[in-house]
Amino acid sequence: MIRWLAGRLLQTLATYALAVTLLFIMMRLTPGDPLAGLSDERPLPAEARELLRRRYRLDQPVLTQYADFLAGALRGDLGVSIAQHGRPVTALIRERLPATLLLGTTALAAMFGIGIAVGVLQATRAGSVTDRVLGILSLTAYATPSFWLGLVLTWALAIEWHWFPVAFMHAPLLDPDAGWWVRLTDLLWHLVLPVTTLTLVSFGAVARYQRAAMLEALGLGAIRTARTKGLRDRSILWHHAWRNSVGPMLALFGLWLPLVVAGSVFVESVYAWPGLGTLAAESIGSRDYPVIMGVAILVSAVVIGGNLLADLLHGWLDPRLRPSQ
Amino acid sequence: MTMLLAVRDLRVSFPGATGPVYPVDRVSFELARGETVALVGESGSGKSLTGMALLNLVPAPGEVAPGSSVSLEGTEILKLRGEPLRRIRGARIGMVFQDPLASLNPVISVGDQIRETIQAHLPLGRREARTRAEALLAEVGLAGTPEGYQRYPHQLSGGMRQRVMLAIALAAEPDLLIADEPTSALDVTVQAQILTLLEGLRRARGLTVLLITHDLGIVAGRTDRVLVMYAGRIVEAAPTAELFAHPAHPYTAGLLGSLPRLRGPRQPLRPIPGQVPSPGDWPAGCRFHPRCAKSFAPCREEPPIVEVAGGHHMRCWLGKSGDSA
C-alpha cells in the first residue's frame, strides 16, 4: 500500500514537472510582448525598453529564464508582475485567491449536489415524463453560455427586480465597522447570482453522467439481491446502487475541482468578482509572463492533484481497485 | 403437513410485438412446510421468472397478470406493496441466485451484506447484528472472524461466494428458501459441497426449499417432489422417486433419456430434438407436441391434467387414452 502510494505520488510529480515545462514553452511560443502594454499606445523609447528588458530579465536566453523561474518557484518566489509594475506574483495570487475559492467551492458543491440528485431521480424514473423533462432542462442549461446567462440573471434579478446586487463581492457603501453578521449576509447576498450562474450552466453535465452511471448500477445483480433481502428502498438506492455509480462521478469531480482555484473567467467578469479567473485573463491579455506562470502552476497543481484525489477516493470506495495486500 | 405456499394460476406477462406474451402461463403448485421441491426446466421454460414472481419481483417491463395468486400462509403476496411486502422479502422468503459474484455487492464487505439483512428485519443493534452475521458466516463454513467478516466478494472463490449468498438468504430466518440454479455456475466438486451445505441448513432450520434447476442430476435423492416446467407451464408433478422411476410425460421422459447413466446397460443419449420455443411462438394445444415423438391428433387441443398415480399428475393427452408413456 505504501509502495503503491509512493509510486503514485512520484508519477504525479513527474506529470506535474512535465506540465509546468510545457506551460512555460507554450507561453513563450505565443506571439506578443509583455512590454507593449506598459506605455499605452505610444512606442517605448529604446533605452527604456532595454532597461525594462534587463530589469525583468527578458534579455536572458529563454532557458536561463526557465531555470530562474524554477529556482524561484522552489523557494516560493514566483517573481514580480510586469504589467503591475513589479508587484510580487504571490501577493497578487494571495489577494485574489479567497474570492475564487469561495465562489468555486460553493458552486462545485451546488452543481454536484443538484446534479447527483437530478441524475439519481432521472435514473429511478428512466423513460418517464419526469426523466425527459429534467433531461431537456439540464441539457438546455448546460448548453447556455455562462456570460449570457449571467447577463440575463443580472438584468432580471438585479436590475429589474432588485433582489440581488448587480456585481462585486461586497456592497461598496458597506460600513467598514459593520458587525460580522452584517458583513456575512452581505457577502452571501453577493454570492447568490455568480454561484447560481455557474451551477446552472454546469450541473447538467453531472446529472447526465449520474443518470447513466446510476442506470447501470440499478441493473446490477446486487440490486436484485438487495431487493430480495427486503432492504428499505433508501438503502437499496443509496447504499447499494449509488455507491456502485461513484466511479464516473469521482472522475468528473476530479476534472471540475480546478474550478475552485481557476474560477470562471466569464462569470467573474460579468459580476466583477475579484478572483483569480479575471487575474488570469488580464495577465494573458498583457503577456504578463510571471503572473501567467504563477496562476498556471497553481491551476495545474489542482488539476493533477484533483485526479490523484479522485483515484484515491475511488480506491477507498471500491475495494476492487485497492492494491492487493 | 401444513401448507406454506400456494401458487394459483400464476401468469407473468411481457409486452411483445403483437400484444402481451406469457413466459409463465397459469402455473399452480403448493409447497408444504418442510418440503423440498425441485422446479425443473430448460432455459426459457419460465422457471426463474416463477421464482422471482413468488417475491413479487418480476423485472420490468414484465408484470404479474391479474388473477394470479401467491399465498404465503394466507397472505396474498402479489397484492402487497411497500412495507408489508418488504417484510416478506428476506424475512419470510429468502433467495439465492445462480451467479454469486454478480449477485453480491462488490463494494460492501460480505459481513456487512449479511448484517444489513439482519437489521432490515430484526430489532437488533449494529453490534448484535454483527455478532449474528459472524455466527452465520461460521455456520456456512466461512471464517466467522473479523477478517472473514471484512472480506469483499472479489476476494472469495465461487463456492465461498455462494456460501455468503446462503448466509444472506437465511440471515433473517425465513421459512422458505428459493434457490435458483444455486450450483450451475460452480465446479462439480464445489456443487456437491454447496448442495450438502444446503441440505444441512435445511435440516437444522426446518426450511422449506424450492430448488430451481435445469439439472435433473442434482434433483434425485435431494428433493421430495419434482415439478417439470415446459414453455411456461408445469407439465408434470410427482414425488421424486416416482418421477425418476415412471416418468409419464414424454417431455420428462425425454429429459431423463438425455441424461447419461452410470449404471445399467450402455445406451446412446437421446436428446430431445429442437429447442424450447420463445413465449411469442408457443404452439396451440400441447406446447411440446411439435417436438414430441408421440404426438397425435388431439395434441393440437389443450391437454387435460390427468392423475397418473397418487400425487403424480401430468398435462398430456396420452394419459387420457390410457397409454402411459
Features:
heterodimer; A: 325 residues; 14 helices; 72% helix; globular; B: 5-stranded antiparallel β-sheet; 11 helices
Could you walk me through the main structural features you see in this protein, from its secondary elements to its overall organization?
The complex is a heterodimer of chains A (325) and B (325). Chain A is an all-alpha fold. Chain A has 14 helices and no strands. Chain A has helices at 2-29, 46-55, 62-74, 89-124, 129-143, 146-160, 180-218, 221-228, 233-241, 246-256, 259-262, 265-270, 276-285, 289-317. In chain A, helix 4 packs across helix 7, helix 5 (129-143) crosses helix 7 and helix 10 runs antiparallel to helix 14. The relative contact order of chain A is 0.14. The mean pLDDT of chain B is 90. Chain B has 325 residues and is an alpha/beta fold. Helix content of chain B is 30%, strand content 24%. The two termini of chain B are 31 Å apart.
Looking at CATH, the homologous superfamily of the domain at 102-282 in chain A is MetI-like
Q: Uncertain regions of chain A: pLDDT < 50 for 5+ in a row?
A: none
Number of H/I helices of chain B: 11
Mean pLDDT of chain A: 88
Instruction: Enter the CATH topology name of the domain at 102-282 in chain A.
Output: MetI-like fold
Q: Which helices and strands occur, and which strands form pairs?
A:
The complex is a heterodimer of chains A (325) and B (325).
Chain A: H1 2-29, H2 46-55, H3 62-74, H4 89-124, H5 129-143, H6 146-160, H7 180-218, H8 221-228, H9 233-241, H10 246-256, H11 259-262, H12 265-270, H13 276-285, H14 289-317
Helix pairs in contact in A: 1-14, 4-5, 4-7, 4-14, 5-7, 6-7, 7-10, 8-9, 10-14, 13-14
Chain B: E1 3-16, E2 19-32, E3 36-40, H1 47-54, E4 63-64, E5 69-72, E6 75-76, H2 82-86, E7 93-96, H3 100-103, H4 110-121, H5 126-139, H6 146-149, H7 158-170, E8 176-180, H8 188-205, E9 208-213, E10 225-230, E11 233-239, H9 240-245, H10 250-257, E12 305-309, E13 312-315, H11 317-320
Parallel strand pairs in B: 3-9, 3-10, 7-8, 8-9
Antiparallel strand pairs in B: 1-2, 1-4, 1-5, 5-6, 10-11, 11-13, 12-13
